[in-house]
Amino acid sequence: MARLLIVDDERAIVDTLVRVLERDGHTVAGMTDAARVLDVDLSRFDLIVTDVMMPGMDGFELVRRIRERADCPILFLTAKTEEGDAVMGLGLGADDYIRKPCGAAELRAKVTAHLRREGRERHSSLEFGRVRIDLTAKRAEVDGAPVRLTPTEYALCEHLARRRGQVFSKEALLEEASGWDSTASAETITAHVSSIRSKFKAHGVNPIGTVWGMGYRWEL
């Protein structure tokens, strides 16, 4: 089973989420002070769930500061309902979000979906000129230099790259990214693709093309 970290300023919520996720056999740690997360060895965790609205350091700032060190899916737990807030969070490096209040079944399904995606067996690599997708290390490279993608961004790149030239709608890519139908909007895929393009652009390439009115495809 997986090692999970829950971050929320309300102890009652942390304790409830810990109990719910431990029922699935996971080892779950809970923290109520987001600032303390900065001192934690995040490589120990397979998935992180963090609240957004917290005093001192909010979830957006926390994810911005730990994304480079946390090589695992990060899920926002948020009472904020504006779509723009969710898109902003995804752009900062989160992989998904769950709206408060959420049921135990929804939380467990989200966590299970992301852990399952992370655990898929991968082999070898895909080569596209200057771009290499390392399927074993779950990493994208340009001329040997790593492109620092979030787990969800990498998953979307791998999905598209494996089916080079095939067009996928935002809805189809959302299902691939989230693992199941949720309250998330397909527009969150726009944020992910924008972030992916920005990171590849820094290396002088743009692997994902837009087919207007239809979706996206891998074009290298």
TrEMBL record:
CDD domains assigned: REC_OmpR, trans_reg_C
Protein keywords: DNA-binding, Phosphoprotein
GO biological process, one term: regulation of DNA-templated transcription
GO MF: phosphorelay response regulator activity; transcription cis-regulatory region binding
Pfam families xrefs: Response_reg, Trans_reg_C
Residues with PTM 4-aspartylphosphate: 51
Protein's UniProt keywords contain DNA-binding: yes
Name listed for the protein in its UniProt record: Response regulator transcription factor
Organism expressing this protein natively: Gordonibacter massiliensis
